[in-house]
């Protein structure tokens, strides 16, 4: 059988402190297994403002297996991974972070499982080192809530560190949505998927490029793209609140007929009013989030804009080649 070709996609945003080590660690693993598979590395520079681009360009000059995609600006982690997957030529594609929190030494294990017939092998975190309690608690809570809310089963404690077979990649390339929650999209695709348990390490240099607002955006994308539950909640609370209001209205009417108007001036009404207005605004906000995403889709702009590709290719934009 012909040697399989494995593409490794690495998104990078301000990773000048880790880019070179990342390359070396990946390369060491790939060279160790060169009898078993060929490889290409695709580094996607997601609009870094530091030296990431010049570092990876210099590396690419020396190594034909390294391809660089440079975005015109920062489009975010999920989009950077998407662009890498779109450009990957391999029989299987591995996605891994640049900071080596996910050990590249596990890739051969993923490849072995793939050869056994699994189409997706995803890393599932058994332990996470060096993360703040806040990140651990929110991530844990998020995956549990997400699973209660979605019909697609999205594995717990799983990031984007995974191997995907060409079949899965080809389906993925036909999913043009803009709000991308890749781990959910891949679960949705199906085929034979398998977890590979591992311990997530500390970032070996630099700081997290996922500030709270990016984490919240990812969480919202995950929930809103895979669940209609928030809309059901709005409908149900609307039903309950109108039901209660009707009962209250009748009580008020009866009291009025009986000549007791003291309830009219009952100060608790203010807080009731506050709750009602608050609930309405919250409901509108949730619906607005769905609407904004619909708006994003219908505008149909390209998912990302590529400034430069090395080795040089005709500049292309958008999800399809
Ligand atoms: N990343 C990116 N664009 C962004 C933010 C992050 O390409 O806007 C990359 C980053 O360089 C890294 C990966 O996504 O390779 C994961 O980011 P990070 O390690 O900072 O996230 P954390 O592990 O803290 O969740
Ligand atoms: Mg990280």
UniProtKB/TrEMBL annotation:
GO cellular component, one term: plasma membrane
Top-rank taxon, per record: Bacteria
Membrane disposition: Multi-pass membrane protein
Keywords, alphabetical: Cell membrane, Glycosyltransferase, Membrane, Transferase, Transmembrane, Transmembrane helix
Segments traversing the membrane: 247-266, 272-292
Matches recorded under InterPro entries: Glyco_trans_2-like, Glycosyltransferase_2, Nucleotide-diphossugar_trans
Protein's cellular compartments: Cell membrane
GO molecular function, one term: glycosyltransferase activity
Domain Glycosyltransferase 2-like per the UniProt entry, residue ranges: 7-169
Pfam families to which the protein is assigned, alphabetical: Glycos_transf_2 (PF00535)
CDD domains: DPM1_like_bac
Predominant cellular place of this UniProt entry's protein: membrane
Homology family: Belongs to the glycosyltransferase 2 family. GtrB subfamily.
PANTHER family: PROPHAGE BACTOPRENOL GLUCOSYL TRANSFERASE HOMOLOG, UNDECAPRENYL-PHOSPHATE 4-DEOXY-4-FORMAMIDO-L-ARABINOSE TRANSFERASE-RELATED
This protein's name: Dolichol-phosphate mannosyltransferase
Organism: Tindallia magadiensis
Lineage: Bacteria, Bacillati, Bacillota, Clostridia, Peptostreptococcales
